[in-house]
Write a structure and sequence with these properties.
By secondary structure, the protein is an alpha+beta fold. The chain contains four helices and five strands, in the order E-H-H-E-H-E-E-H-E.
């Protein structure tokens, strides 16, 4: 079984719409990376309903810690940096997505984080 994990910063004062937009950017970017690096996983995930979970971290350093950990395990990941036109400063890292990838591998890395 495959899923995608979206990790959002909880310390930023982003509105719900902004959160959804940032998470959507991350999801698409990570899917595209997976499509190129693990095409069969991407196809299977897409055809099985595109399971996702959105989790939260307390700040940028924790977000980067999880991002780097996932990359160390070979999981396709993509960071999102906001352009800064609305609610946050330019180049603020708001979130990242990992996968789609094997659900058990993702759970080993992200299993202690809380749902957003």
């Amino acid at each position: 079984m495959f899923k995608q994990v979206i990790v959002m910063r909880a310390d930023l004062s982003m509105g719900k719409g902004k959160l959804v937009a940032q998470g959507s950017h991350a999801s698409v970017l990570a899917y595209e990376k997976t499509r190129h690096t693990h095409p069969q996983i991407a196809r299977d995930w897409f055809s099985l309903g595109m399971m996702k979970v959105t989790l939260k971290v307390n700040g940028e350093s924790e977000l980067l810690e999880y991002y780097n950990k996932a990359k160390t395990y070979g999981i396709p990941c993509e960071l999102v940096r906001d352009a800064g036109h609305t609610q946050v400063e330019p180049n603020t890292i708001t979130c990242f997505a990992a996968g789609p990838f094997d659900e058990k591998a993702l759970d080993l890395i992200f299993g202690k984080l809380k749902l957003l």
